[in-house]
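pasting for ref
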Amino acid sequence: MKKFFMLLAAMTLMVFTANTAVAQDAQQAPAAEETVAAAPANDLAALTEAAPEVPLNQALKTKFIEGGAGFMSLIIICLIIGLALCIERILTLTFAKYNTKKLLENVEKALAEGGVDAAKEVCRNTRGPVASIFYQGLLRYDQGIDVVEKNIVSYGSVQMSEMENGLSWISLFIAIAPSLGFLGTVIGMIQAFDAIQAAGDISPNVVAGGMKVALITTVAGLIVAMILQVFYNYILAKIDTLTVDMEDSSISLIDILTKYNAK
């Protein structure tokens, strides 16, 4: 349920940002039209000087329409869902991070003062995958250190799977976005050849429409894939950091339990 709310919050934030950009476009478009209309129709220099600088969001909106609403919408959906999944993973992994050195000190202190039950209580009240692994290991303490070590290794694999949850979907959108762009490229080329066939003549004006669709969809798909790839690699780096912490802390816990068992 927590992951669902994180995902919903991320998607709401991106939709709100998109609506704000559209509202700004609506405010700026009338002013731009008035400026262009006021310029002399036969004076190209005056028209160029009078034309205001096009804002970035307006330019992106124009290219979106020129690229074809069908394929561009699919590419944008890949970006929105992919970014939502990335943000959810980043938030989850950030909250999972905990000071393992402090946790080990608390567990060792609890073992010395209250035994295994007190150490379990410390792990139960601590967030993060490391504390969960410690708790699962302490549950099997009465069966021996070897069983504790095996249980830690097994549950560590479970925690790794949970941390990597959703990465397969992110990699899917990374692959789909450029594929949709290339598909739009093929369809744009088909439209260009259809226009040539209908006109019976090869001219830049006839070919330009289809070629523009082809190039814009390709660029959009590649940009979306690159953005998601950066987030994907960042998430993998965070998972690697947590994995190292888990392995190092697990070895330290075994040493602590061995020392405690020798008393």
